[in-house]
Structures are given as C-alpha cells and as structure tokens.
Amino acid sequence: MMEVDVAKCNYCGACVGSCPKNCIFLNEVKVEINEDECIKCGFCIRVCPVGAISADWWSE
Amino acid sequence: MKEYEYDVVVVGAGPGGSTAARYSAKHGLRTLLLEKKAEIGVPVRCAEGISKNWMDEAGIEPNKWFIDAEIDGAKIYSPNEQHVITLSAEMAGNEVGYVLNRENFDKYLAKLAAEEGADIWLKSPAVDVIKEDRKVKGVIVRKFGENVRVNAKIVIAADGFESQVARWAGINTTLSERDIVTCIQYRMVNIDIDEKYTHFFLGSCAPGGYVWIFPKGKNEANVGLGIALSKLKRRGEVKEYLDRFIEKHEYLKRGQAVQVVTGAVSTCRIPKKIVGDGIMLVGDAARLIDPITGGGIANACRSGKYAGEIAAECIDNPTEECLRKYEEKVRNKWEKKFIRNWFAKEKLAQLSDETLNKLVEAISEVELKEISVYSLLSAVQRKYPDLIEEFEDLI
Predict the structure, then answer these.
(1) ipTM of the predicted assembly exceeds 0.90
(2) Per the CB < 8 Å rule, is A12 touching B264?
C-alpha cells in the first residue's frame, strides 16, 4: 500500500514525471497512484522534495 | 460524450504551450489551449531565472509586469565558498538576465495566444489521447469535471515535466534515475544578498545539482536547490538539504519564506523521438531542459513557436513524416549542446568538494572574456595540470 500525505504534498508533479510506469496522476491538488501498475521502484518516494509519499514495502 | 472539433489542441498553458497556441492560432488554425489548473501561472514551479538573448526569437518583448528583477551577472561559489567565479550577463549566456514573475509571465503568454484567437479552457486536464490506427486524433478532456472529446488534427503536448500525454501516445519520454533532479525553493524575504547577481553554489550542499539564489528585488530572492535523484536515499531529504544550507548562512537565516516551491527537472539528452503521427512534444514535456543549468523556459517558448509554425505547415497532412520537420529543427538547434552539457553534468556530479574548490579557484583567478570549454580548461591546466586529466574526454 502506498500513501500520499496531503498535509506534506505540494502537488508539484515531481513524482508524476519520474514514474517509469506513468501510473501516477495529479488531479489539481491530489496525487493518485495506480498501484496495479506500480513496480515498486521507489522513484516517487525518493524524488518527492518534501517526503510526502510512503509505502509499506519501502525501507530506507 | 460531448465532442469538439479543432485543428490543434495544446495540452498545458505554461510558456511552451501558450507560445505554441499563439503561433498556431496566428497561422489561422482553430486552436484550443488546455490548462488543468484553475489559474494559469499558479502555483509557480520554477526558479524564474532567464537570459535575455532568446526572447526576440520567441516574439516576447520584455515587460516590467512579468519581470521582477534585472540581473548583471552570475556568481559561482566553490563548496568552501572561499572562491567565486563572476560572470557578466554577456559571458554567462544562458541563465542570467532577468528573474521573472512566472505568475504574470504565464498569463501574459496566454493572453498573446488568446489575442491570436486561441480558445482557452481552465480546469480542463487531458486524461487520455484519442488514437485511431495508432495515429493521434485528439484528447479526452475532463472539462470542469465532465469528460468531453476534443478531436484535433494535431495534439501539441506541453504538459511539462509530467510528460504524460507523450507517453499515452506511445512516445517514450521515461527518465532514468541519473537524469532526474528534484528541487525545492523558498521565496525568502528579509535576507541580505547582492541583488545584482544570481548566485550558484556547487558541491555537497546539493549533490548532482546546485543551490541557487535568484534575487526577486531588494532583500528578496528565490533560494532553492536541486539534487540528482541518484544521490538521494531517504524520504524528504531534499528539504533537509535546503534547510541546512539556510541555517549555515547568516544572511539567509534571518529571512523568512513567503512561499515554498517544489518540482523536478529532467537533465537528459533529447529523447529518441519527440513527434509522432498527429503529435508534437514541446518544452519540458519533450525534455528540452538544459542538462547542466536545469533551465527550460527559453527552450519551451522557442520549441513552442516552432511547433505552432510547423503545425500550420502540416495541418493537411499531420503525419509523423511531416511533423519530423519540427523535430529536425529542435535537434539542429539544441542536440549538440545537450550532449555536451549532459556529459559535463555527469562529470561534475562525480567531483569531490576538494576538486571543485580547486577548479573554481583556478577559474576565478583568470579574467574571462568568454566562456568556452577551452578557455575554462586552459585556465585550470595552468594552475592544476593534474586536475585536467579528469576532463580529458570533454576537450
């Protein structure tokens, strides 16, 4: 499961353009991740300038 | 589903999209400009520094309304900040000149498009492309919450770093880890800076990127940094880097942020393909960002203009073959520079702070009349012959 912390997210789209599967969408101020297509590369988690994205499979 | 008919639909009303729409409409094409947000130019995703020399070509006249500050030159600091390279605007070429007010700049360019006759829809994200026999024939738009079909002979993808329209159309703009730089910036007030210069800080303060201070006026500046994704391990590290940099500098520490800006840029070479049947990519969506500076506005506006013009040429035959004229124009203009700057970026990212200190010191001691790889390297060679070995493949 992936989660986007709306209190941190600045809805900039850094995660969208970095996603190699093109399965993240930014609708105005809301980031949505299509997890069916996610390959768990972690790009979005690391690219987020404010650390708003987390996942239970992610470890640092 | 409601249907609309246009010659050209442009996705994204940033500088590239608005300029594309402007020139498309100027050539008599029925043009629609889509913007997914509620307001053009907001929120800003940009450090706002530009040079002056390209604006004429893009048909943009400098105007106080969208320029916050005029800049005399750039200062590049070594990691230990004991050495500084000072570049005048003429020498630095690309990224100094003006600091924009992007909120106004983007609206101004959209206005120019509207004046040429383009329609503009706000709160209207493209959610998919329409394809028939693998040819792009328009886009599906969520127009104020309602899905509508926009049929168009040509789609111009100007959706910025996200670059989703291209990928829906089957054009690969996927980035590798080494070619993504992630950024954060505060617009700071009550700081004490030399407002006549843009300031760049190299080294471990921003691995694989740099820290910038771009003045927006007296005691006010965009203070930000970009870091290569390949150098980042932990969540939220980017913000920590910026907070640390500010904390270390007395002249920034007393300031306050009135805006936080985030985003990412690509630092890749030009993709294999930036056109397809019925589609052209412009600006950040085409990855036309200078790999070493991260600057994209000038390329966005000019590529947008080219795309608008080629759209007019190809409107009765919008095949990939015809639209390749646009791609050739872009490649002829930027490909060499992008390859060179990409290699330089890769090299710079590997250098230690110690090496960078020496490099900046050596260059700062010569009076530079022009900035060329050769003049820089020969300056370094005189002082640190051993250093130059690291750059042999760049000569």
Answers:
(1) yes
(2) yes
